[in-house]
């Protein structure tokens, strides 16, 4: 699952390299509007006749992408890093399947770590008891609980929670890097 997502992440990072250079913020309205200059993007990449990329840029999904990710000041994620900093690496890996696969595995690992920041905290499924299991003769009665032991367990869990890192990472907002000039991007 993560490797398939990493393949698509890498594909769209290559397709959209340099897109930030073609974003324009219009501040006439009370709320700023972000527009994408499609002709400049396609022209500078030499892809004016590319039907696929033209249709991608005209789609509603891309309009949502520009609205969501076009702001110059927000938290940076893996896609932003790929578009801004990995251009040379992806160009160097062209034609070398082993390097591409290694990069995809690295991206998949980063995606996994992003979704599972604390791997020690796992939830175990408890199976539902079968019907009539309480009627079995070999089943031992549930032992009496000692109040002192129960309180000790609760105190241990409370101490662990107090020293545990926060469950949600605080978003660190900064200027989104625009990456290399659009003319240096990979041509398809």
Automatic annotation (TrEMBL):
- Any one GO molecular-function label of the UniProt entry: guanyl-nucleotide exchange factor activity
Q: Which domain of life is it from?
A: Eukaryota
Q: Which residue range or ranges hold the UDENN domain?
A: 1-76
One Gene Ontology CC term in the entry:
cytoplasmic vesicle
Q: An example of a Gene Ontology BP annotation on this entry?
A: regulation of Rab protein signal transduction
One Pfam match, by short name?
Answer: dDENN
Matching InterPro entries: dDENN_dom, DENN_Domain_GEFs, Tripartite_DENN
Q: Which PANTHER family match?
A: C-MYC PROMOTER-BINDING PROTEIN, DENN DOMAIN-CONTAINING PROTEIN 4
Q: What is this protein called?
A: MTMR5 protein
